[in-house]
Amino acid sequence: MKKFIIIIALLLFLNGCTGKVIQDLKLEGPYKVVNVVDGDTLDLNNSKRVRLSGINTPEVGECYYSEAKNKLASLTLEKEVYIEKDITNIDKYGRLLRYIYINDAIVNSILVEEGYAKVYDKYKNDTKRYSQLKEAEEIAIKNSLGVWSCEDAIQDCLYVRSKNSDVYHKPECRSAKRIKPENIICYETEEELNEDPADLRPAKVC
After folding, report:
1. Mind listing the domains of the chain with CATH numbers?
2. Which uninterrupted H or E stretch holds 15?
3. How far apart are CA 86 and CA 125, in angstroms?
4. pLDDT above 70 for 13
C-alpha cells in the first residue's frame, strides 16, 4: 500500500512539472525544430517535414509571407515541440500533417489568432480542430490583424497595381494579393485608372 501511494505521488509530481502536453497520450515527442521552411512548414530533428494542419499562410511574394515565416521561427526554431496527428496523416507532398504544441499551446492556433494564417476551410472535414481554429480566426478578423489587413487594403478597389510596376490587376487575382500593403495603388473607378499618368497595361493573366 505504501509503495502504491509513492507511485501515485510521483506521477502527480511529474504531471505537474511537465504540464498538459505530456498528459495527452496522443502527442508525439519531444522533437527539436531544426528548420522553418515558411509560415506553415517546418523540419524536425527526426528528418521529418511537418505541415501545420488546418491552416494556410501566405506564399512567397504574397502579403504577410515574411511576417508569418518569422513568427513561426520565433515560436519554434531550435526549440522542443510535441506534435499531434490530424485525421489524415500525410499530405500529397509527403509532409506530416500535425498540430504543433509548445509550452502547452497549439502553434497552429496562435498563428491564426494573431493573423499570420487563415483556417484552411477547404479541408474542414479533415481537420479535427477546425472549430477551435475558426474561433481563433474570428479574433483576427475582428481586429483586422495580419493577413486580414492585407485584404482590407484592396477590397474596395476596382483595380490595383504596385508602385514598382505599370501592370494593373483585378483585386481578386493572385498577383494582386502578392503586392505588399505599402506598395499598393488602388483604383476605385475606371476614371481613376485612366487619369493615372503612368503608361499602364492590364495583366495578361489573373
Report:
1. 14-144 (2.40.50.90), 153-192 (no CATH)
2. helix 2-18
3. 11
4. no
* Helices and strands counted in the chain (H then E): 8, 12
- Residue-averaged pLDDT of the chain: 88
Number of residues written out for the chain: 206
User: Which positions ≥6 away from 144 have C-beta within 8 Å?
Assistant: 115, 152
The b/e string for 134-155 (b: 16+ C-beta within 10 A; e otherwise) is: eebbeebeeeebbbbebeebbe
42, 36 contact by CB (below 8 A): yes
Q: DSSP letters along 114-140, please?
A: TTS-EE-GGGGGG-TTHHHHHHHHHHH
Residues 92-127 have pLDDT tens digits of: 999 999 999 999 899 999 999 999 999 999 999 999
* CB distance 27 to 83 below 8 Å: yes
Burial class from Cβ neighbours inside 10 Å (0-12, 13-18, 19+) for residue 196 reads middle
Buried/exposed code over 47-61 (b: 16+ C-beta within 10 A; e: otherwise): eeebbbbbbbbbeee
Would strands 80-90 and 55-56 be described as parallel, antiparallel, or unpaired? unpaired
What is the structure's pLDDT at 119? 98
User: Strand runs (DSSP E) across 4-102, as ranges?
Assistant: 27-38, 41-44, 49-52, 55-56, 80-90, 96-102
Element spanning 105, H or E: strand 105-106
Between CA 148 and CA 179 the distance in angstroms is: 14
